[in-house]
């Protein structure tokens, strides 16, 4: 089974490619290396025993995509490629709409022209905005509070409209909660450029000594200890969710929407404590003001994915923190440049 994986050199895509290879699928990675390094390919090969086909290209460039679709007999597409930093999206909205929305449009048009009718799209729990209650069901109303979230929402809506008039297509929207962790080998992981925006990469850089302390954004939320609560999901579980989607609904015509989360929430301070335990290193922190746009708590109801995709998260919080630490301590500066 040949699957085009846009953004396959990135954090979630690279882990998914390993799981695909191990399941006997053949990923073809399509990535412009905007936020990833080519040495990821060596690591995928080292861990999985197979070097995936890699095509350097941009999802906004239809000629690049047409060429791949004509060269390979592609059955399905997993579309990870995109920009993902909320703060940056506020500062550079046009770039976010161009890469995320226009990129998804060009990709879908290239698929249509090539007769490929199976698409799995990386969406986010951000499309639920500030949910009225938790756990969050797929049927909850959607909204956006920043250009990143709005780009995901626009893509979801475009794909929904498109699927309505192309009922033989299978389009799956996977709404990820908070991906963390690394491959258990310690050879692949999250390699943010510059100052990390997300909690776990920041915590692990504090533990490894690259940063002095963590700023905990808000300690007066109505939560277990006043800090924000999120549904952290191991990237290996998330990757498995993509294989489950391909296997169970990838050939089933329709629009399919699933939460990929664990169904559990953990606070910032719980994550810090779990990380200190896994690493044996202190993680100094300071309680500071809330981060604008943050919500108090957010976790998934993952029952729909369990019922339809026969998938559920199995890795524990200890797995997430131990695997993150193995990656961070073995690769304190991320992937080599090469
Ligand atoms: P990432 O930045 O590590 O990977 C994205 C990959 O896409 C990178 O390798 C980058 O080089 C590539 N890319 C960017 N623009 C491109 C373009 N124009 N053409 C081709 N390739 C391009 O991000 P990730 O964490 O692996 O996220 C993957 C997807 O999942 C994104 O769409 C993101 O919005 C979504 N998502 C991520 C999270 C998260 O916390 N990591 C949460 C929810 C949703
Ligand atoms: C963020 C994005 C969301 C995206 C998700 C991907 C925002 C507002 N939202 O969500 O759109 O889909 O990442 O995983 O950025 N925290 C700290 N100190 C830090 C960093 C984070 O205390 O240095 C806290 C946050 O306040 C939050 C929790 O840690 O309570 C998780 O934050 P983060 O990893 O940025 O994820 P989200 O805010 O859930």
TrEMBL record:
GO terms for cellular component: cytosol. The keyword Acyltransferase does not apply. InterPro entries: NAD(P)-bd_dom, NAD(P)-bd_dom_sf, UDP_G4E. It comes from the Bacteria. Pfam families: GDP_Man_Dehyd. Keywords: Carbohydrate metabolism, Isomerase, NAD. Its cofactor is NAD(+). GO terms for biological process: galactose metabolic process. Its EC number is 5.1.3.2. Residues 4-324 form the NAD(P)-binding domain. It catalyses: UDP-alpha-D-glucose = UDP-alpha-D-galactose. Pathway: Carbohydrate metabolism; galactose metabolism. GO terms for molecular function: UDP-glucose 4-epimerase activity. Belongs to the NAD(P)-dependent epimerase/dehydratase family. Homodimer. PANTHER family: UDP-GLUCOSE 4-EPIMERASE. This is UDP-glucose 4-epimerase. The gene is galE.
């Amino acid at each position: 089974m040949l699957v085009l994986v846009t953004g396959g050199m990135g954090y979630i895509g690279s882990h998914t490619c390993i799981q695909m290879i191990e399941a006997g699928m053949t990923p073809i990675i399509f990535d412009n290396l905007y936020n990833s390094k080519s040495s990821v390919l060596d690591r995928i090969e080292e861990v999985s025993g197979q070097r995936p086909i890699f095509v350097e290209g941009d999802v906004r460039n239809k000629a690049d995509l047409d060429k791949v679709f004509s060269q390979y007999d592609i059955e399905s597409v997993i579309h990870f490629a995109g920009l993902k930093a909320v703060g940056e999206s506020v500062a550079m909205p046009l770039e976010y709409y161009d890469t995320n929305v226009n990129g998804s449009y060009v990709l879908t048009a290239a698929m249509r022209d090539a007769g490929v009718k199976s698409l799995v799209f990386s969406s986010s729990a951000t499309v639920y905005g500030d949910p009225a209650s938790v756990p969050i069901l797929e049927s909850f109303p959607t909204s956006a509070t920043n250009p990143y979230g709005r780009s995901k929402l626009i893509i979801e809506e475009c794909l929904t409209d498109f699927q309505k008039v192309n009922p033989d297509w299978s389009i799956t929207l996977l709404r990820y909660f908070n991906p963390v962790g690394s491959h258990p080998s310690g050879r692949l992981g999250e390699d943010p450029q510059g100052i990390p925006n997300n909690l776990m990469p920041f915590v692990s850089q504090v533990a490894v000594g690259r940063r002095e302390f963590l700023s905990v954004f808000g300690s007066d939320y109505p939560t277990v200890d006043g800090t924000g609560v999120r549904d952290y999901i191991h990237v290996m579980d998330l990757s498995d969710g993509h294989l489950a989607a391909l296997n169970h609904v990838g050939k089933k015509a329709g629009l399919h929407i699933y939460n990929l989360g664990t169904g559990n929430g953990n606070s910032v301070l719980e994550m810090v404590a779990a990380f200190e335990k896994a690493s044996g290193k202190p993680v100094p922190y300071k309680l500071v003001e809330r981060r604008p746009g943050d919500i108090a708590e957010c976790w998934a109801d993952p029952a729909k994915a369990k019922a339809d995709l026969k998938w559920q998260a199995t890795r524990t919080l200890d797995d997430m923190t131990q695997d993150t630490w193995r990656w961070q301590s073995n690769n304190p500066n991320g992937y080599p440049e090469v």
